[in-house]
Prior knowledge:
With 216 residues, the chain is an alpha/beta fold. The protein has seven helices and seven strands, in the order E-E-E-H-E-E-H-E-H-E-H-H-H-H. Strands 1-6-4-5-2 form a five-stranded mixed sheet, with helices on both faces. Strands 3-7 form a two-stranded antiparallel ribbon. 17% of the residues are buried.
Amino acid sequence: MPIIALSQLYPDPRNANVCLPETLATIQRHIQRTGLCPALQVRPHPTLADAYMMIDGHHRKQVLEALGWTEAECQIFDLDETQAGLLLLTLNRLRGTDSPRQRAALIDTLMPVLGLDELTRLLPEGKGEIEGLLALLRQDESALEKAFQAQMDAEKQSLPVPLGFMIAADDLPLVQEALAVYQAQSSRDQGQALVAICRDVLALQEVSDESTVSAA
Length: 216
């Protein structure tokens, strides 16, 4: 099998497999003790020349780089995107742990090509498990969409809106003077000053109403 520079090996962005630090440390100790590393499984990179994309061995490559290795023995497979995706869903699950969301996202990309029945035949999950993973993916997307919409709605509440009314020219100095007083008190702009005036008027009205009730 060929020896390939680690700098020529690129991770598959669809890889859902994650590895705990303790597991990585175990792999590192094993390689340090024996000086041996199982061959990394790769395929020709779909877009880069003289480069390869990882199929199996993402974590071993990470450990080799930490140990200062610059190259490794590799087994090269000529696979298309669908075939590589299936191997990511099967081989890598034997090591480390899959991120459920990333695994669901990868399965989702293969659904239009292979369909649910074929994926059920090829993957460790049963049909119900696959449907559950895809439902989780959809649920997460729906939750994100709802959160985004809620944020947008909240921001809309704080956006300025125009007030469309007219006042008599003789009343303009009075309004401007009142706004100037409120602006000077707390460095408000004219819009904020008008809101403050309205709050104060309503507060005075509430006190007046309470006084009227008490007197009665």
